[in-house]
Design goal:
- The protein is α/β, with parallel strands linked by helices.
- It has helices at about 15-25, 40-45, 65-70, 90-95, 110-120, 125, 135-145, 155-170, 225-230, 280-290; strands at about 5-10, 30-35, 50-55, 80-85, 100-105, 185-190, 190-195, 200-205, 210-215, 220, 235-240, 245, 250-255, 260-265, 275.
- It is built from ten helices and 15 strands.
- This is Transcriptional regulatory protein YpdB.
Length: about 290
């Protein structure tokens, strides 16, 4: 049986070495690489279709292991997650995020047997990660095996309407415009939060992802800033900088700084200052009617 490609994601080299040694005896798993941060793990996942991540909940940098789990939750072919932590304090949250298991490190080989059993009980997609597209073909084949056809009679006067509707449904040249409910879906702790646009103060780019900031909290999302600019632009948001998209309704002040620099401030108990790029200031003044 093919071994499941496994990635160790932990900031401590000693723990990574210990995990590699522990997993060496697991015939069902094959360790193919290590990562110290969530960003490194995501980069490696783009190149290798990993089936399992052994990941620390407390990764260094702006993205923790828990936030990494939230980001992976939006993927169709995502790896199973086994959290590796120093204590049990985050076990409940880990399982809420869909973790396959939670290991308190150091772990005994007998405890790993339980982890392997839990991984083996997962769906076939988790057991063996296949190349992109293979899962779709496999699922389609299974769907065809289970498929049944139900024939219903159509009245003569309804036949024309039915054929017309069918042609329209299959006409790929007619792109349907998606409905905008003016809420941004954000995956959080295993559930989807619908964040109203007016509650968003600004969006900050981070690599290929973004942080969405409100008055009280920030959310790590899988959206790219460019995509959010297209989505939120018609609703009063403006790209003031290559890294920042701002809700103009939340802006209370634009300040001129020495050296021809500009800064805007947003509302709230904690005043937030964001830079404005020189090439954007003219367009921003025009939008604001200045």
């Amino acid at each position: 049986m093919p071994q499941v490609k496994t990635l160790i994601v932990h900031s401590d080299p000693a723990v990574r070495a210990g995990l590699r040694q522990l997993l060496a005896g697991a015939q069902a798993l094959r360790v193919l690489g290590e990562a110290a941060t969530a960003f490194e793990a995501l980069e490696m996942l783009e190149a290798i279709p990993y089936g399992v991540f052994f990941v620390s909940p407390d990764l260094p940098g702006p993205t923790s292991g828990m936030e990494l789990a939230q980001m992976l939750a939006g993927r169709r072919e995502r790896p199973a997650l086994v959290f590796v932590a120093a204590d049990e304090s985050q076990a409940c949250k880990a399982f809420e995020l869909g973790a396959a298991d939670y290991l308190v490190w150091p772990a005994l080989p007998q405890r790993l047997d339980m982890t392997l059993a839990r991984l083996g009980a997962l769906s076939p997609g988790f057991k063996q990660v296949q190349p992109a597209g293979a899962w779709v073909e496999e699922r389609s084949a299974r769907a065809q095996d289970d498929q049944q056809t139900l024939s219903l009679p159509i009245e003569e006067e309804e036949e024309g309407q039915f054929i017309s509707a069918l042609k329209q449904a299959w006409d790929l040249t007619q792109k349907k415009r998606p409905v905008d409910i003016e809420k941004l879906p954000i995956t959080l702790d295993g559930r989807t939060l619908l964040l109203p646009y007016p509650q968003i103060l600004f969006v900050e780019a981070y690599e290929d992802y973004s942080f969405v900031h409100t008055v009280q909290q920030k959310y790590l999302t899988s959206y790219r800033l460019k995509n959010l600019e297209e989505r939120l632009g018609p609703h009063g948001f403006f790209r003031v900088h290559r890294k920042f998209l701002v809700n103009l309704e939340a802006v209370t002040e634009i300040a001129s700084l020495p050296g021809g620099q500009f800064m805007l401030r947003t509302q709230g108990k904690t005043r937030i200052e964001l830079p404005i790029s020189r090439r954007r200031i003219g367009e921003l003044k025009q939008v604001l009617g200045l």
